């Protein structure tokens, strides 16, 4: 099969010809991939800094959408022809930037019919991360106030949108180009992170004592997000560099976990319009290197998709 990937960790992304996957065992499905997500974290996989189970030569890619071509026994109710999306980690044989993907059925979710293949493909990782980060920051309490630092990014926007639809009052940091998009979501308290002293403005928004909960999605923004928090508050950070705890603050270092059931609930919200993901660029099967370069360079809060 045709794929886009690497011959060794740290190597350039190129077109590869790989053996077709084996037939699915019980609890597995073979997916005919229509599109895959391309994002900065794929570069971590390329470099070997995020261990997802790949053994080069291998297709990259940790999220995809497509149609089930075959299922093994005990397939959790999935059938040939079902349209699905997945964050397929740990990888069984190859990554998602390939024509065919062998994946565990417990990591699949139904693709909403109203959503494009590209949107479904780029949704799983940021959506699952948003779901996990929000639960970690809110600690199970309904409602309340939350700061989302770095809300202009693909994941940051989903965190902010999910918080809003679950009844949380959200303050967000964003640059000028993303501020309007966040206001359109219904967030009035948008603070420009380029302005010194924005954490003080956020504390004021929360009544002076600081926000009870914050999620940091801004690389390097961990300390600023912490400084906007109230004593004893909760910080979830997704940037992999949690700060030292202070003032009784609880800190969660959130790393995305694959989970078909939770992805299914997020996909329902995507299908009914409560959540959205915007595609900023779609690349052909031979353009994996260009797609990754665009994603790593920053696509202004839009997601990138690679067609199979
Ligand atoms: N731990 C995990 O499992 C996990 C999962 C997903 C993502 N992540 C990581 O989380 C981070 C955010 O992900 P993403 O998908 O939202 O990335 P993204 O789409 O690449 O976000 C880029 C946006 O972040 C905003 N930004 C950049 N620097 C900022 C700063 N100093 N302060 C505030 N905002 C800033 C910019 O928006 P504006 O200037 O337009 O506002 C920029 O367009 C990345 O580092 C990503 O690798 C981790």
Low-confidence stretches: none
Share in β-strands: 25-35%
Q: Shape, please?
A: globular
List cofactors, ions and other ligands: NADP nicotinamide-adenine-dinucleotide phosphate
Characterise this structure.
The protein is an alpha/beta fold. It has two domains: 2-123 and 277-307, Quinone Oxidoreductase, Chain A, domain 1 (Alpha-Beta Complex); 126-253, NAD(P)-binding Rossmann-like Domain (Rossmann fold). 28% of the residues lie in helices and 28% in strands. The protein contains nine helices and 16 strands. Helix 9 links the parallel strand 15 and strand 16 (303-307). Strands 3, 5, 6, 7, 8, 15 and 16 form a seven-stranded mixed sheet that branches. A six-stranded parallel sheet has the order 11-10-9-12-13-14, sandwiched between helices. NADP nicotinamide-adenine-dinucleotide phosphate (NAP) is lined by residues 40-41, 125-126, 129, 149-150, 152-156, 173-175, 177-178, 193, 217-221, 238-240, 254-256, 298, 300-301.
